[in-house]
């Protein structure tokens, strides 16, 4: 049965935490046990169908003990006036033995704290302009601090994710509710109904959030509202393209994408009014060159609709390498199970027309997000020209 998804994307009280996307079954995707003893925290077994691409719990806001130093280093690197200053901070931490001390403790991190460490390492790598490096490649030793590369590779091994210096880490693990909610809320509802603040700020404390901070928080809210799109995409898996419910689901997909586009346009005014340090342009340019700025929820829609890209754009594989293994497996399952729906691209009639409308609305949504990125990346007051 097709899920009912209101076009205005409300956050209904008592919203179930598991949506229709859980209908996809794939042996490569871990699912929580339905019975038996509780899974220990040291075992990573999230269900991507439950909260989409958001973490299962709010990201760790404060790291304690020796790891507090990594938080301090990430914060200092993020607000450094230029790359050389940020790299100097990392080099000093390496000479003082702080990075080596952290490297020795990586294996003891719980999954949530390992994710927290990966965020801070990702911020440092992006701030220093090292996001294109493979920490295990010998050539990287000529470009980056050796002690930091050692820590980076150890954290990557701990989280089982080699390409984490990208938007999914820098945005989706870099938020926290401004106040503690009075009641328990599903993670996606929490992220779209509560005021969010960065865990690691790209702007100094006591000053307004810069454009890069606002872009990351806008992406988090996009993913939180986009849970409807993620679940609806999952519900289309295995559908017969000639089934009347397929046309209904595609129309709802169009409405969701239009609503997400309106949400991004609403973020633009606040982003344009925010401070725009020149060095943030370099950070965004470095991430864009790696194909590391694609919101994950777009990839779920693309798995259903199969929208093509212009020549020169990064491939679907390159975009997905920045996601954790469970999320990549989930998208691969969507690719397989939604293949019948994608045959509508070669048919005629009303079903094919609705399918093409869904593709066009996703293309428009992507363009609007690209405009938001340009607005954040250009301190000369770049406009959100992609919004029509």
3D architecture notes:
There is one protein chain. With 388 residues, the chain is mainly α. The chain has helices spanning 48-51, 68-78, 83-95, 98-103, 111-127, 146-159, 167-172, 187-193, 211-225, 227-235, 244-273, 278-289, 296-305, 316-320, 325-337, 339-342, 350-377, and strands at 176-177, 196-197. The chain has a two-stranded antiparallel sheet. Helix 9 (211-225) packs antiparallel against helix 17 (350-377) and helix 13 packs parallel to helix 15 (325-337). Mean pLDDT is 83; it is low at 1-46 and 384-388.
Keywords:
388 residues; two-stranded antiparallel sheet; mainly alpha; disordered C terminus; disordered N terminus
Largest sheet: 2 strands, antiparallel
- Globally, the shape reads globular
In total, the number of strands is 2
Tell me the fraction of residues in β-strands, as a range: under 5%
List the helices and strands and how they pair.
Layout: H1 48-51, H2 68-78, H3 83-95, H4 98-103, H5 111-127, H6 146-159, H7 167-172, E1 176-177, H8 187-193, E2 196-197, H9 211-225, H10 227-235, H11 244-273, H12 278-289, H13 296-305, H14 316-320, H15 325-337, H16 339-342, H17 350-377
Antiparallel strand pairs: 1-2
